[in-house]
Specification:
19% of the residues lie in helices and 32% in strands. It has 2 helices and 9 strands. The protein has helices at 2-24, 37-41, and strands at 28-35, 50-55, 68-69, 76-83, 91-100, 103-106, 112-115, 119-122, 126-127.
């Protein structure tokens, strides 16, 4: 009888040891979304291009984290990604990148930041490069004219 009791006790202890780390783990999903309406108007995002998110959570590289067009808007693209438990309660840095045949079009600085919490995180939708409709970006231009005849 004593042997059976200790066998059960051992089995229960083993289950508790296996289940304890899982109970402490805090998983987090983050939904990234970006509005590409302005970029489409400016022909900076065309059919066949891809929009991805890169950040310190994926080594700022690769095309694995591609966003897809949302069902409710032709201009909004989304991705829900599960992040490692080690990023819960930490701030991540990221940028959206347009990948096209011409190369990678990164957003300007500064990086976007977000504090990841346990559970489901939804980052509010913003415009690519933070460029809203009707806004313009400043650029320096130099014109050269040959006036010789």
């Amino acid at each position: 009888m004593k042997l059976k009791f200790y066998s059960w006790l051992g089995a229960i202890m083993a289950l508790l040891l296996v289940a304890a780390p899982a109970a402490r783990a805090q998983t987090a999903t983050v939904t990234f979304s970006v509005n590409l309406g302005v970029q489409k108007t400016l022909s900076k995002f065309k059919s066949g291009d891809q929009i991805i998110v890169r950040g310190d959570f994926n080594g700022w590289a690769g095309n694995a984290d591609a966003l897809t067009q949302s069902a409710d808007s032709a201009d909004v693209y989304r991705l829900t990604k599960t992040l490692p438990d080690s990023l819960v309660n930490k701030t991540i840095n990221y940028k959206f990148v347009i990948v096209s045949a011409a190369g990678d079009g990164w957003e300007d600085d500064p990086n976007r930041t977000y504090m990841v919490h346990a559970g489901a995180n939804v980052i509010p939708t913003d415009y690519f490069n933070r460029q809203r409709p009707g806004e313009s970006k400043t650029a320096n231009l130099t014109f050269v004219a040959d006036l010789t005849d």
